[in-house]
């Protein structure tokens, strides 16, 4: 059976919970479609996140990697098209911030997701889940870990599908913070299950 490394993040900034953490925990060990899921939680720390993610990649040797992040404010499930070679913006959970910083000196300007993002969006919409390709994952931790993971896979010349999917806030977050579009935890989890089922 194929293996899928599914990562989520701990809470960050003003968010008291992170639904991506809950989904990665809930799906860990499950068999979904052609894949056995290995769910792992990543810290929101530039110093640690990519090392841990790549460490899990080497430990699990997955056939597919789906990294999840919360994008508070988005209303749809958004598979990310690209990761850019730049970190910039808000502080991580240890207070570290970057401005206009290159992630990999010798790396390309960007890496495209190798997940079938158009197919994923189509399958989600057919099942009734609003979804849209996103053309920017920002320049915070999610972009950083996606860039690092795709760079690692590229250097190793592995034939592994990998990419990043941002998800909207859960109702729990929307109750704590005003004016955020939100989904039920159930629907968020079902949407991620749908994505995994859609993979070969
Ligand atoms: N979302 C953040 C980092 C952690 C998370 O869940 C991001 O979009 O970069």
From TrEMBL:
EC number: 3.4.19.3
Family affiliation: Belongs to the peptidase C15 family.
Keyword field contains Protease: yes
UniProt-recorded name of the protein: Pyroglutamyl-peptidase I
Species per Swiss-Prot/TrEMBL record: Bacillus salitolerans
Gene3D superfamilies for this protein: Peptidase C15, pyroglutamyl peptidase I-like
Keyword field: Cytoplasm, Hydrolase, Protease, Thiol protease
PANTHER family found in the cross-reference section: PROTEASE FAMILY C15 PYROGLUTAMYL-PEPTIDASE I-RELATED (PTHR23402), PYROGLUTAMYL-PEPTIDASE I (PTHR23402:SF1)
Catalytic activity: Release of an N-terminal pyroglutamyl group from a polypeptide, the second amino acid generally not being Pro
Major localization listed first in the record, in broad terms: cytoplasm
GO molecular function annotation: pyroglutamyl-peptidase activity
Upper lineage: Bacteria, Bacillati, Bacillota, Bacilli, Bacillales
Function: Removes 5-oxoproline from various penultimate amino acid residues except L-proline.
Enzyme class: hydrolase
Subcellular location: Cytoplasm
Keyword Cytoplasm among record annotations: yes
Active site: 80
């Amino acid at each position: 059976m194929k293996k899928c490394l599914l990562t989520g993040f701990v809470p960050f900034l003003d968010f008291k919970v992170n639904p991506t953490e809950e989904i990665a925990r809930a799906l860990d060990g499950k068999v979904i479609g052609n894949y056995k899921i290995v769910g792992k939680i990543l810290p929101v720390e530039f110093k640690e996140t990519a090392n841990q993610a790549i460490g899990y990649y080497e430990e699990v040797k997955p056939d597919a990697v789906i990294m999840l992040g919360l994008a508070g404010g988005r209303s749809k499930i958004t598979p990310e098209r690209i990761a850019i070679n730049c970190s910039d913006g808000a502080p991580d959970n240890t207070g570290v911030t970057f401005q206009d910083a290159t992630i990999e000196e010798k790396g390309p300007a960007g890496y495209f997701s190798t997940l079938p993002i158009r197919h994923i969006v189509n399958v989600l919409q057919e099942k009734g889940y609003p979804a849209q390709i996103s053309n920017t994952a920002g320049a915070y931790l999610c972009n950083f870990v996606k860039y690092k993971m795709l760079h690692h896979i590229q250097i190793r010349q592995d034939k592994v599908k990998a990419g990043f999917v941002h998800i909207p806030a859960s109702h729990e977050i929307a109750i704590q913070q005003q004016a955020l579009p939100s989904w039920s935890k159930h629907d968020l989890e079902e949407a991620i299950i749908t994505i995994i089922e859609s993979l070969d």
